[in-house]
Amino acid sequence: ATMVMRAEAVSRGGSAKYQAAGTAFERSPAPQVTTDLQDGFPVFASDDLTIAFPQETERFEVIPGPGERVVNYAIMPTEGFDVLGHVELLIKDGKPTSLLDIEVAPAGRRAGVGRKTIATLLAANPTDDINISNIVHAARGFWERMGVPAQNLEDGAAYDGTLNWQTFSQAANDAGANRL
Fold first, then answer.
1. What percent of the chain shows pLDDT beyond 70?
2. What's the CA gap between 165 and 7, in Å, rounded?
């Protein structure tokens, strides 16, 4: 389910929110995420951050199929215009299907910006899978904490993974149980 509002509503901190029916998982329901269209691409806003200002781009290793577009987004706080990083997504039929790249600015590192970005994207379509593309060695720990199992590969090798709200939520629950 996608709620479509006027494009300027998200940039002003629009208040309309939804939670798709039947998407709350046992111990960790998906947070409410507002989706909108900006320049024909979805944008996302949660209580934690906004993923907006989409720019269609190209990637050498991705050849989009019919209905697919490579789109780069700014990751921003819910208030103001600071850029906390960027995320590049493969969008198909208005939904993210692959996360191609994420980079958090130094000011947002260790502040949960990466985790909140993943949570916002997954909560927007909690029953859909998002492919995580090209997980490099330095990012393995992050993606394992998000719910993508680490693969036993030699140094320098990259791999792909898949996330949805349930696998992300379970990883968060497991991490919390391990801290007790």
1. 80
2. 26
Q: 123-171: per-residue pLDDT in tens? A: 999 999 999 988 888 888 899 999 998 877 777 778 888 999 999 999 8
Q: What is the pLDDT averaged over residues 81-110?
A: 93
- Is-contact 15 36, C-beta < 8 A? no
Q: Which structure tokens are listed for 176?
A: 């919390």
Whole-angstrom distance, CA of residue 70 vs CA of residue 65 = 10
- Can you spell out the DSSP letters for the chain? ------THHHHTT----B--TT---SS-PPPPBEEEEETTEEEEE-SS-EEEEEEE--BTTB---TTEEEEEEEEE-SSS----EEEEEEEETTEEEEEEEEEE-GGGTTTTHHHHHHHHHHHHSTTS-EEEEEE-GGGHHHHHHHTPPP----TT--EEEEE-HHHHHHHHHHHHHHH-
pTM for this predicted structure: 0.78
Mean per-residue pLDDT over the chain, rounded? 80
